[in-house]
UniProtKB/TrEMBL annotation:
Protein name: Endolytic murein transglycosylase
Record membrane topology: Single-pass membrane protein
Top-level class of the enzyme under EC nomenclature: lyase
GO cellular component entries: plasma membrane
Lineage: Bacteria, Pseudomonadati, Pseudomonadota, Gammaproteobacteria, Thiotrichales
Amino acid sequence: MAEADANDTQDSNNNTPAVPSKRVLGWVKLIQWMLVISGLLMLLAGLGTSISIWHWSQAPIAGSAAGVENHVENPNEQRVRIEILPGQSAQRTARELANLHVLQRPDWFVWWLRWQDQAHLIRAGEYDINPQWTPLQLRDALLAGANVRHPFTIVPGETLTQVRQKIRELDNVRQTLSDEAWLTLGDRWAELGVTPFLEGWLLPETYFYQAGESDWQLVERAVLAMVATLNQAWLASNEGQGLPLKSPYEALILASIIEKETGVAHEREMISGVFIRRLERNMRLQTDPTVIYGMGDAYQGRIGRAGLDTPTPYNTYIIRGLPPTPIAMPSAAAVMATVNPDQRDYLFFVAKGGGAHHFSVTLEEHNRAVRRYILNRN
């Protein structure tokens, strides 16, 4: 019995868990504290990074003189132009901005874009970058697309040949149209009533385009503007009611003649009235700009008797009615004047200098005006 008790006592002692020594407990506590301190340090580091990123995101992209270690100087704070090519990476874009002294933290900006999964959304084109933008503003600009717009102006009275040459001289426009294509370019908008030959169909005004646009895109903008202007004028006249004009295109032809005849704004309706009454009475229009247009390269600054006597589809001293096409690009004001002619009885006019004209009701009065202003005889 005593032996059994002894064995039991021994087994009981063997099953009792060992108590860790004080040294071991000390190491455990030390490790626990180290983990806590490490976590706090990581939290503080993360918080510090977040504060730094937030501060960076609110500051100008070029940096500021106070508190920035490597300040990028751009004393005039002028916008800087940059061209981003198709497929260009965010990293290359940021590096170019840094080289231009616009972006002070290019690596941060790229990381920020990637973190937002937007680095691949930067769009090609030309941009004017403001060094005082924040990274958020820079990002929004690069994702929205090119913000540089180039002006292109069509002057009232210019011909299609002149406008075409202007477009061909634009270095930042893709030239896709051959000489042959220009002759029938209007077919692209035939459903809108545009004729294949585009003389008269480009509304004179200033348009803005982005580098890389094609020549026909510029033309399209001007054509659509003219279509809208012409349709508005035609509808305002109850589709030419009371006018000797059969279609909007005839109104466009007459508007081009009015545009070439005067540069004085208040005379447009008066010139329109003269031509409208002549058409109503089946009188020849007898207008020099149409003759000049029909002469083409043969015109060297003077019509002469030979020019007046040479038959062409545009010689309104010989033909009756309107020429077959417009002779220039008429302004919106000229288009509106066409369908709103002056109601006085004038049938003649002659230039009296300074771009203005003398208007007459009778041929006798007109001849006196010709002697006075053209022949310099009283």
